[in-house]
Amino acid sequence: MTAHPELPDIVGFLAEKFQGTILGDYLSLFSSIIYSLFVVLVLFLVLYFATRKKRLIPGRLQCAIEILAGGMDDFVCGVIGPKGRKYTPFIGTLFIYILCMNILGLIPFMKSPSSSWSNTLALAVCVFFYVQYTAFKEMGFLGYIDHLLGRPRGVMAFSVFIPAMIFFIHLVAELIRPISLSLRLRSNIWGDDMLLAVLAGFGLKGVPLLLFSMPLVILAAVVQAAVFCLLTTVYLALALSHEEGHKAKEAF
What we know:
Elements: H1 10-17, H2 22-29, H3 31-51, H4 60-80, H5 88-104, H6 117-148, H7 155-158, H8 161-200, H9 207-240, H10 242-251
């Protein structure tokens, strides 16, 4: 059975160099986490220098950050409504973090942390618990149970089978969301990485194909980050109230 082709990366090279040692085992086991922490460090430094000296007339870096923050706020409020502004930091952080992880694999001798299911699943689990927390906070315990039951009213409230069936469907849907959310992101980024690795294996003959594929891979990285955040925004909108959830369904 042949191994999947992979582009060489720094952590993988160090893991092979120290193979058989504790350091080599840790580097091999936690390579995706190391790259994730590297992305966090880079983002911290960028935001630090962008906000260190705020100016009334912003420089290029501060201006770029403000445009990105304003765009994310418009995006979130466009789906959720005015109440969505307080969720912009969470969703905006997700988008920037996932996008940088996706793009990292396009840099020579680096690797996309989002090509590992452990990383994308961790992000999806964070989204799951944040959505559940928001739902309990906005609706209350009884209101959330009523939401899961499909808000039965009238004759439907006196039936047992239909509300129980709707409750089961909603419960299964809530539990499946982290799996589908994480697998969608991981599978697409992993597939792009494998494509680039196969094309790179052709040597000089594969350079034209690499140049042709690179813009498509970059576009896919942006789209996958946007899709992850769009679904997160819709999940939050559905957890806020019935009316806003209905608006989110129409926007989605």
